[in-house]
Amino acid sequence: MSIKIMKIVFLFLVAVTFAGCQNSTPITSNDCVTHEDLKVQMQVTIVIVANGTPMMLPPNIGIEPECTKALHTHDGSSIVYVESPDRKEFTLLDFMEVWGDQNPYRELPEIKISLNGELFSGDFEDLILKDGDRIVVDYRDAR
Predict the structure, then answer these.
(1) CATH class label, 27-140
(2) β-strand 134-140 against 40-50: which pairing, if any?
(3) Using one digit for the tens of pLDDT, what is the confidence trace for 24-34?
(4) In whole angstroms, what is the distance from residue 13 CA to residue 27 CA?
(5) What counts of helices (H) and strands (E) characterise the chain?
(6) What 3-state DSSP class applies to 59?
(7) Looking at residue 57, what DSSP letter applies?
(8) How far apart are CA 37 and CA 112, in angstroms?
(9) d(C-alpha 23, C-alpha 135), whole Å
């Protein structure tokens, strides 16, 4: 095969690959995912403390009939499964959006977050979930 033909084939393959990337829509935390071709698979423990009382996350957050979201729980162990076909970083805010109106603590005005035993001073959207993280979200009534 001549060098000219090899260059044309190479450029064609690069163009097809690039076009495929441009047309794909990145997954969001509220999209349904399958267990095929996952590029992100991790587990994060999220414990809720409501007015001083530790609570486990309920089962099946992010799981509906015919739909499992990228961030979800299976049982009452407080383990959040993060599974995505895209290499994307998900945040604590993404999980809270999946939990949505079913989160009974969302109306409590004071929130403190700790990450792996250290106080986290940023916002929900800044806390990127990483495999093995242990996050405590402390909800409290205003004092």
Answers:
(1) mainly beta
(2) parallel
(3) 566 777 777 87
(4) 24
(5) 2, 9
(6) coil
(7) P
(8) 36
(9) 35
**Non-local CB neighbours of 66 within 8 Å, separated by 6+ positions:** 32
Say what the alpha-carbon torsion angle 95, 97, 98, 103 is, to the nearest 10 degrees: 90
Element (H, E) at 34: none
> Distance from CA of residue 40 to its chain's centroid?
9
Residue 36: name the closest of 84, 70, 98, 89 by CA.
84
The C-alpha R_g of the chain, in whole angstroms, comes to 20
Cα-based distances in Å from 110 to 1, 29, 54, 82, 119: 68, 24, 15, 26, 14
Residue 18 buriedness (CB in 10 A; 0-12 / 13-18 / 19+): exposed
Per-residue pLDDT tens over the stretch 52-102: 999 999 999 999 999 999 999 999 899 999 988 888 899 999 999 999 989
